[in-house]
Design goal:
Strand content: under 5%
Biased composition (Basic and acidic residues): 1-20
Shape: elongated
Order of helices and strands: HHHHHHHHHHHHHHHHH
Distance between the termini: 84 Å
Number of strands: 0
Helix content: 55-70%
Radius of gyration: 25 Å
Structural class: mainly alpha
Region (Disordered): 1-24
Low-confidence stretches: 5-26, 241-245, 264-290
Largest sheet: none
Amino acid sequence: MATSARESDLENHTNNEKSEPSTVHASYVGEMLHGPRWRWVRANRLARKLEMKSDLQDDEFTLSAARWLQTSKDGHVTHRHTTEHDFTGAVEIHENAELRLQVEARLLSKQPTERIAALSNVSSHAVETYIQLFFDVIGKMNARSWIASHVFDGHNGEPVSLTSVILQNSYRGGPIVCEHYLVHYRFVGVGIHHDMSTEVGRQRVQLELDFQSFQPMQNLSLRQVSALHQLGSDEEFSRPTTGGLRFETDQRVLDELAHWVLHDHQESQIKTDDGFEEIEKCWPSPEDVA
């Protein structure tokens, strides 16, 4: 019986799918286990002979990284190799906490590679290699659950680091929010008193409040939570941006405050119908918060 053209095309397509290496599936498995740095983990295991090379799992970049690691003593490089990829530059970014934060925050804010390199004062070649080796997120920027699970910390009620707050706000707020945080973050969360009479001081207090708003509310005192609510909605404070991010931050603080008042501390703090007056009395002046 003669085979139709449509049936023949379908059969050829199926055969081609079976013969092609399943690199998409393999990379998916690596991403689920190790997150954005899955190639770095895999290349190290290949270089240390802990795993065997696999055509189904290893793309050319991963194999190049493994070969590069094999030529380096204990994975540390003393000179820059002239290869297609700048692995030395990528490792230098990864080992410098401030530089790594700048590159990752700017990438999450969807800035182009050339701009990231220029603002971070590194080569675009190093940034491109770093993204593939340590921070493979470009194709997953719309996968918010994956980003939240593998890039941001503070899961299961744990404290959230300032780095994670910067990355989250950069991801949600874009380049303006990202650059605002990168200008001021060294002065946030380190116990510095901010001068509320200056624009810079008010901006940094706002970032202090935003940093606190990411923390589990059970770790904050009533005075701190009240300050978040009062100053977080104060129109005098400069904000890194307006619109969606501002609403999201304010709403998160208000939701947490409401839950804290109505549930966690209902018996101890609200004893009368006008019990909210007790909370209002605890609100500090703006000068006390910094």
